[in-house]
Design goal:
By secondary structure, the protein is an alpha/beta fold. The chain has helices at about 15-25, 50-55, 75, 85-95, 100, 125-149; strands at about 1-5, 30-35, 80, 105. Strand 1 (about 1-5), helix 1 and strand 2 form a beta-alpha-beta unit.
Length: about 150
């Protein structure tokens, strides 16, 4: 199973989602990656606040470098999780077939089905935002793992 996590900048939410799923789903042989819909932060390490919250749960994000989503990702991945409704809409606009569209999901729908809730963008907020984001993504990733097991 190949899973891609997508947010806007690929430095806050999606690297965290990638790290959580990889670490907690180690036994499942998953291929997990993350990308941003925007190009602003290509090549950069995750935001220090994401690195720190990940460290708190012994998840290492130090090797991650931001990249932009590309249409080739529709072929490479089985499931593409959007962190928020903007990312979702953007991904849908890039998809060119029903097969591609069917791969795109809202990550929080895993825990709150059909509600299309967004993981809030923590970039301009304080540290608490990152703890909240971690808690949401952790729950969603645990559900993803349970569904695959
Ligand atoms: P992310 O957060 O999409 O979770 O990586 C953001 C990172 C950077 C910006 C916005 C959101 N930005 O505007 O630069």
């Amino acid at each position: 199973m190949k899973i891609l996590m997508v947010c806007l900048g690929n430095i806050c939410r999606s690297p965290l989602a990638e790290g959580i799923l990889l670490t907690k789903g180690k036994h499942l042989n998953l291929e997990v990656d993350s990308a941003g819909t925007a190009a602003y932060h290509i090549g950069k390490q995750p935001d220090i606040r994401s690195i720190e919250i990940a460290n708190k749960y012994t998840i290492d994000l130090n090797q991650k470098r931001a990249r932009q989503f590309s249409r080739a990702d529709f072929d490479k991945f089985d499931i593409i999780y959007a962190m928020d409704t903007n990312n979702y809409t953007h991904l849908i606009s890039l998809a060119s077939s029903e097969t591609e569209r069917n791969k795109i999901r809202m990550i929080l729908n895993e825990i709150n089905p059909n509600t299309h809730q967004s993981v809030p963008d923590p970039y301009y907020g304080g540290k608490n935002g990152f703890q909240d984001v971690y808690n949401m993504l952790n729950k969603a990733c645990e559900k993803i793992i349970k569904n695959i097991e």
